[in-house]
Amino acid sequence: PLAATGDLVTAAAGARTAVAAFNIITLEHVEAVIAGAESVAAPVVLQVSENAVKFRYGRLLPLARAAAAAAERASVPVALHLDHVQSDDLLRQASAAGFSSVMYDAARLPYEDNLAATRAAADWAHAQGLWIEAELGAVGGKNGEPPLDAHAPGARTDPAEARAFVADSGVDALAVAIGSSHAMTTRTATLDHERLKRLTAALGVPLVLHGSSGVPDGELSAAVAGGIAKVNVGTALNIAMTGAIREFLAAHPEAVDSRKYLSVGREAMAGTVARLIRVLSA
Ligand code: G3H
Ligand code: ZN
User: Fold this and answer.
1) Model's pTM, two decimal places?
2) Shortest-distance atom of ligand 1 to CA 103
């Protein structure tokens, strides 16, 4: 059934586990994430990023409606989350499109601007009954230089600054920069567990790990033990899908029916989903 992201994250945090949130791009992603979660009987979050909406000719509804329809029929709780939203126009489509939560991403802005934009987004989201995640990366903009992208390899969230940011913005969860970075194709990230410990102690809201495709299993387990309650995964699904399709097409150069290779790609993604969920709940 369709679930609310806030409920899944709260339950995961209470059980000292993390809910996995997978970025969906195609209908095959939707089906694979749900099949993978069903195979391990675990709840899951389907998330649509602003970039994925751009890929879908700027339209949110076709993918959102497909995801909601699939979620309603799933045997496990499935929540819909709008990810890395920078556009206010997209933000305002969230509720009507069936999303229970949004990640508002103003982390590219200097601290005060990030705070002001995030507070306005949080006020709006809460008035709609939406759960909202925001992001705070490196301390930046102090000497006129732009802040580091929060998931650039060198970015780190400062616990004292994050504490003030959460209190002043009113967000329900915070994405923190502790060593992961987006779109890694090797699982070689090492996390700053000591910083995570300080962030967890300082914040009092669930913490979210982005760029989790590049984080090895052991580091993921340690991050969950250290207070991460939502783990965002995108690239790992594309690695699985594209690798499987590439192999299939190499072995079957005569193949033309798209169902033949899409099903292979979908199966590979479902396997990745199940494997990662097991790591998070172990
Ligand atoms: O918000 C989405 C995640 O941070 C995905 O990152 O593609 O590096 O796994 P990833
Ligand atoms: Zn992310």
Assistant:
1) 0.96
2) 1
